[in-house]
Amino acid sequence: MRRLFEDELNELHTRFSEMGMMVNEAIYKSVKAFVNHDKALAREVISEDQKINKREVDLEKRSFEMIALQQPVTTDLRVIVTVMKASSDLERMGDHAVSIAKSTIRVKGETRVPEIEKVIADMAAAVKEMVDQVLDAYVREDADRAREIAEEDHGINTFSKEIYQRCIQIMQEEPETIVGAMDYMLVSSYLERIGDYVTNICEWILYLRTGKLLELNSNAREDDF
Amino acid sequence: MRRLFEDELNELHTRFSEMGMMVNEAIYKSVKAFVNHDKALAREVISEDQKINKREVDLEKRSFEMIALQQPVTTDLRVIVTVMKASSDLERMGDHAVSIAKSTIRVKGETRVPEIEKVIADMAAAVKEMVDQVLDAYVREDADRAREIAEEDHGINTFSKEIYQRCIQIMQEEPETIVGAMDYMLVSSYLERIGDYVTNICEWILYLRTGKLLELNSNAREDDF
């Protein structure tokens, strides 16, 4: 019985990590598509989101059955609860990749602003790095690393503010950039939200190790977006 | 033992519904603050968000303890899992109310556009109506109603598109509205996201009744935001 349960628990971990990699790929592709104006790649992100959604449902079902049939307590239960909760965060990160992909498809040859696209690409690289790291920290159950990763979210918010300022400026100076700059703003807000979800997963890693539910980044500061 | 468990389950329901009402009030106040340019009310929304976050942690702890100590199966477990998952949706709806409040504080006497503010107010009223209804459907465990409520999300997306079009137009015609219109776009995107979370809760109500995890609104359509 215990042996079987261990196997199921490992399987759950593996499938969660795989979901993380699917989401990471979706984010990477969606930004690549946006920056390269690649609508075919954007469509790929949208159609592949179904796989991510299915995986979330699969993880929910497995978690539920493991709780119902094996009646785990303490640490084991914590592992399962973590997967149940954090898989929602991953799924929503995937949804934001889809939103970025939709922005790419919406753009119809409007005037682009390479300087802002450069900042978006840098922001996306920083977000992708956070996602890579949080998946690694999850596998290692590294609570210290999780705290550090959550700190990096402040850097993501700095990118947001920079993109906002630049968009306002270019829209005022060159009205033909308005439609494109609105999309820059939206894409930046999706990336920022992905960073928030990474922070949520960091909180779950801490919970996994300590059993304590903590909020790592408060959104009570008025000057943040 | 069973008696105690029933009491705890009822308490869990009540506390979840209360959280829903707290979130609903936050959304209502944040939009009221935005439309009336009321920074004091916006600050109230931001500071009260802590209560919502605390309530989520409280619900998570209670759910976890109930699973660990009472080892519920089938229907009872489903109720607890629903609260665990849907409380995250509520918490994020609260976060979006905070984002709307932050937009209100950021605005520094820029040129406002009353026609667009009117559409935002209408959109907010429609979102608030959805939130009211989903909380009611949750209490009644009304799966049919949940399906209907999820359908209403399409109407919310229609508001989004209208606001987007109007913002683009006014920015191009009157560049002094650019800063304000960017905020309109952001507020509209937060409201739309709140509608998505309502749809998630609808899915959880269906799960509560049927044990099936279904996706009510696919985000695979390219023309949506």
UniProtKB/TrEMBL annotation, chains A, B:
Q: What Gene3D superfamilies does this protein map onto?
A: Phosphate transport system protein phou homolog 2, domain 2
Record-annotated PhoU domain positions: 17-103, 120-205
Question: Which Pfam families did the record assign?
Answer: PhoU (PF01895)
Keyword ATP-binding among record annotations: no
The keyword Cytoplasm appears for this protein: yes
Give compartment(s). Answer: Cytoplasm
Q: What is its main location?
A: cytoplasm
Q: Which InterPro entries match?
A: PhoU, PhoU-like_sf, PhoU_dom
Q: What does this protein do?
A: Plays a role in the regulation of phosphate uptake.
The family this protein is said to belong to = Belongs to the PhoU family.
NCBIfam families for the chain? phoU_full
Report the PANTHER family cross-referenced here: PHOSPHATE-SPECIFIC TRANSPORT SYSTEM ACCESSORY PROTEIN PHOU
Q: How does it assemble?
A: Homodimer.
Q: What is this protein called?
A: Phosphate-specific transport system accessory protein PhoU
Gene name, Swiss-Prot/TrEMBL: phoU
